Amino acid sequence: MNDIAVTVNGQSRPLAGTPAHTTALDWLRDSGLSGSKEGCAEGECGACAMLVATPSADGGAAWTPVNACLVPVYALNGQEVVTAEGLGGREDLHPVQEKLAEAGGSQCGYCTPGFACSMAGEYYRADRAPEADHVGDEDSCPVHDPEHGPNGFDLHALSGNLCRCTGYRPIRDAAYSLGSPAEDDPLLRRLADPAPAAVPTDAAVDGARFLRPATLAETLRLLREEPEALLVAGSTDWGVEVNIRGRRAPLVVAIEQLEELRTLTVSDDVVEIGAALPLSEVEKRLDGSIPLLAQLFPQFASRLIRNRGTFGGNLGTGSPIGDTPPALLALDARIVLASADGEREVELAEYFTGYRQSVRRPDELIRAVRIPLPLSSVTGFHKIAKRRFDDISSVAVAFALDIEDGMVTTARIGLGGVAATPLRAYATEQALVGSPWDIATVRSASEILRGEGTPMSDHRASADYRSLMLNTALLKLYSTTVIESKEVSA
After folding, report:
1. Predicted TM-score of the model (pTM)
2. What are phi and psi of 378, to 5 degrees?
3. pLDDT per residue over 76-105, tens digit each?
4. Virtual torsion, Cα 242, 248, 250, 255, nearest 10 deg
5. What is the Cα 45 distance to its own chain's centre?
6. Cβ-based neighbours of 12, under 8 Å, separated by 6 or more
7. What is d(CA 318, CA 332) in angstroms, rounded to the nearest whole number?
8. Is 244 helix (H, G, I), strand (E, B) or coil?
9. Residue 162 and residue 148: Cα distance in Å, rounded?
10. C-alpha 447 chain-centroid distance
11. Do strands 423-424 and 407-416 pair parallel, antiparallel, or not at all (unpaired)?
């Protein structure tokens, strides 16, 4: 217990005696590092953002921004963290801090430390490629495209950071005016060395215990002995329960660093994705090779959340409004459930049994998601929410169709937000298969799709609205295919 510590801004700080449920944000602030702020305590505002050293593909490290309010501090045992204070001080501002000040990117300043950390993560991104003629210290920065600057800055890096008083234009200007890190930049030089390896952890304080097993086999043995243990990967869901609802668990088992759960392999007939591989990493490794997921990722919460969130966590919680289940249902995915007795494979369409319930036994965990190949030729992911990005779905619809000689040969449709569980729209699929892909078929099938599920009314949307969105989703997909076919013909 005395060896448990986190390196923060280059200094090792012990965790001994810290309550097991404590978040990184609360621990940082209690340690005197008050630059990180608590805005929402549920991962929506980014005021608490910090940088964590994570492994990079070249064997070095990358600075990855995450929400400190959601991460259990014991999950950072042995890890390396940089907060806003570690970027720079009043007398030696970091380039990101300088540009924010020059552009007038801060008013009340509450959100600014989080913006600075997220912006710094993008500043140090190894593959950020500026245009050849861009000068980093220009006074004015022309817009390159709606979401990228001429310096290669991806605005999605700031999608999880909210500002309520400054306005986003000066913040964007600051981001787009950044040059490249100097060769002697200490935070850049740090990235040449490997990120810290995961450290097995066992901390028991006041009757609560946080445990990080060393291997998957050890984890599965533990689950057999302690079936009530709470499994936590990215903690983007459990962290909200801890902060907002005051939930506590006697035994939390962290699995996000288990190498067996962080794989991604592609064979001739299947893509297998480890259940604990962060969604941002999945997105990077797939690099658009699964178009349906490529549409999903930018709409899944924010980059801050995707840097921690996982497929396993999104499926494991069983939420009917999770974004990944509809897409995975359309992809005909199967999940691999592992226990100390072995593994079994389950069709995702048969996995959910009720509201936040599934066929997974207490002694099992989700090891991987398997997506069969080849992929369908026509896919689409439609998310209806109050905001374009960083929001919870009112309705999510995913399509995967094969169309040959103008006829629908296969169809899979995944739905979220319209029932107690994510589900397949089997009746609509049956109406499509064997029918011509034309407006008459689509209109007829759309009426069937409208009646799928049992939508309810809540603060996000009414039941009637949800049904209407189902009714229009297939028409939207059809119009996309018509436009694409015209473009090909032209």
Report:
1. 0.93
2. -120, 115
3. 999 999 999 999 988 899 999 999 999 999
4. -20
5. 15
6. 5, 6
7. 17
8. helix
9. 18
10. 33
11. antiparallel
